[in-house]
# Entry
Amino acid sequence: MMFSLVMIQPWFAVAGLASVGLAIWMHLYQRAASRRMPISSLRLVPETPPVARNRRKIQHWLLFLLRTLGVILLGAAFARPGPSTGNFSLTGGREAVVFVLDRSGSMAMGTTEGPSVWEEALDLVRKRLVELHPQSRVQLVCFPPTETGEDWVSPSAMRKVVAGLTPSLAEGHPLGALREAAEALARFRSDMPESLDVIGDLQRLGWDEIDTLTLPEELRVRVSQVGYPEAANRGLSLRVRGRDQLRRGAVVAYGGPSALVVRDQVDGGGDLVEWENPLPDDVLELPYRAPTNGWVRREVAFLQASDGLAEDDRLFDTFYVTPEIPVYLLEPHPEREAFLQTTFFLQQALRPTEGEAAEDSRFLPRMVPLDEAVGALLDLDDREAVVVIPPLANWPVGLPAAVEKTVRKGNGVVFFAGPELQPQDYTEDWATLLPVRLGNVLSFDRSLTLPPIGETHPIWGGLSEALRRRLRKAPLKKRFALEPVAGAEVTARYADDVPLVTLRPVGSGRSLFVNTSPNRAWGDWPAEGALFVPTIHMLMSTVVTSTPQLLRNSPGAGIVGVPFDIRVDPARANVPLRAGELTLQVDAQGWIRNLLFDRTGFFEIQTEEGLAVRPVAVNVPPGESQREFYAPAILQRQLEARRRASDSDGNAPTISLASESGWWRWILTALAVVWLIEPWLALGRDRPTVRKGVES
Amino acid sequence: MPEPLLHIDAELIAGSRDLLLLAQSVVEGYAHGLHRSPCAGSSQEFSSYRAFLPGDPPQRIDWKVYGRTDNLFVREFEQETNLRGYLFLDASRSMDFGDGAGHKFVYGRLLCAVLAVLLQRQQDAPGLALFGRGQEIPTEDWWPPSTRRSHLEHLVYHLEDQVADGTHDHLGGLSELVDECHRRSLAAFITDGLVDPEELKNVLSQLGMRGTKVILFHLLAREELEPTFEDEVVLVDQETGAERAADGAAYAGLYSENLARIRGHIEQVCHDTETEYCFLPTDQPLDDALRRFLLLRSG
# Structure
């Protein structure tokens, strides 16, 4: 096997050689300047000294050679050289070649001049095919894979196959393709030399996994990069932040101008709303709101023209805008100043006037004096309202029945604990609604803690990690000893397992008991606005069960090539739906599973009859949009290492892509030695023979 | 070669931060065995009391002290001298050269202090001027001769703080200053000779015409006398900062010739102006300098 040298960054080696000029210049032009000798007066020296400063010759050869060696070693270390034993050269005879071709989203990139990255890749494949012996056998493996797999064909037949290929916008994961190529070669069983020819832009995505790969022993490997680095890129990607009523879309932009244009279109003939938005810190958070209710198609794009990969310069999102949810807060002390009312903090939290939640809130709090509550609830026609019952010492006759009637229609009720609450009275009057049986009040000197709250927590999983940590130590100091009634479910507990939030289905609605006060009577939790507002929003969302709310809370955007789930009206369960050519099935909860699209944009999910169900948005995978590449030499060496791994006992060595060769360590060691010697040599040479005096 | 009496080395200088003390110890060492015997003079400068001895003139008895103590004391006065000694020290930056005790200005400063102490011991009046710092000699660099004891102290303390920082190679206002010199006087020039030779000649002539005995101490550091040139160097003038490239290997011989020529020229100037010329490499002891100076004074 021939030995050759491969450099990861050959330009550094060139720069190192060019820097030899610097060493020469130092020795020719700087040598006199470095030997300055003070003298009391130039009167002591002859007027016309016999010296020729323009005479240039290298005098200190050892030092010169040492410095030259130093800059060459520095360049060589950065060039990261290493041995390449897989010298790929055509044999001129018959061969079995597998082309592993990248057709991921980044390959669809256009370049400023000349052919696109994809065309460049195809040209390279065609060129290689022409170079092959006509009786060679060729197979093509793409990542992402093509819909129809290819078999071993002749080079001329493969040229026709290649002509029909198109790039995908999906993510590319080369590991599967390489495995498939290795298996194809193993199955081929011929006496022809076998080769693997990898062609792509070598984007970082997916390549880190090749440590687990094993290639045939005699396989020759060639890695070729196309499209790098001339194609500049910018892009947009979407992340959803928050949960439930506080969800909002976060648009992440990179490489583009500092302003975006946002277009919202409500399905069913709503006006197109368009506005420009500056981009703070590369992330723009957009609340899911619209002037009218219904499905909204949102498109975000850079304000200026697009670049080589136009598909990632626009971003698509869909969401469902629900009507505002009325929340009836029964206030026992409406005559008091607002801030002294029992439900004051809840009113503020559900309709905040500042902060992110002010834009996102879909709740409409209404304070109802306790005396008027019965009449108000009996007139209630809402089917997704929430009634909040603060701790009450007494209540009008007929209130429990009115609330129960409301809840059974499909609305929710939320009870709060507090000092005014008498357990015995509650147990007697509210037994059909209360999810718990109340015991004594338990007081604590220190704040109670909650157990760790993870991302899957049924109520507060959507909070940020910082808020979840804060909620664990929320200042709560009193609570009831209680136990849930039959059919109730504890959705949140204190750290000592005492229920904090208990949920009970009642008819079509839900009843919730919160084991702390809604005001500061039993702790300062309501006074911490940044924590209280989102936690109360999420708490209220758990008792809202209507279909529009389910739709609102379901994600509406996916990415090309990655299966994702969306939700539709559960009434569509088991009804066949369509999205373009795709036939879709809806499960009992209204979920359509494993939706997969191969291009970006909006797609309409329809019934067989053509009735619109909901739109879906699909975007370019963020990883494909970002352009970070491996050097071909690194990957080639890694693939060769995978091949060599099968030489011995078949155990694949663990080789990181970053540590492709240990040569650089030796080079740096040599450089360190040079740098240790150089000052000693230079100082020894420059030690002055006449020194300036020292003042006493 | 006889053992030198006055060792001036780095250890000696470093061991004494007090230039006056150092100069006095040098003089004491040189004049070993001789004790100062102040003669009773007739000047107005009171010196001290001492007990009356038979033979002392009765008019010198202090009767007021006798009235208080019942003991006879006579009052002694410093004798005024008729000789003024002018010490001219070169403070140009070219003097800022040499290593340790061989540093030209350090050496010259010590020599100056020693001569001042010596003059004081001889009842002469030492004066000091530092030149080479500008077109004129500033007031603070000119200390007219005086026999006051405090004058010597102030003069030497002032000297102690000086550095060679002048950037002029001419003698500044020395010519005007010489006009103020007393006619019967003694002058010592302490310089490295790297001054304008014509100007030096004029000043020396001027002093000679006024009847002043002049001695020129020509200081040169050992590194200047025997420099080691290697390879190509850039010589940097201490005074002006000017630079000149020189090929050291081919340069050593020419340098020695040039130095000999400069020395010869200064010697010739001294000869022409009847000035005593004393060449002093700064690694040499001060014996010769003091001997020559005392000879000049007595002669």
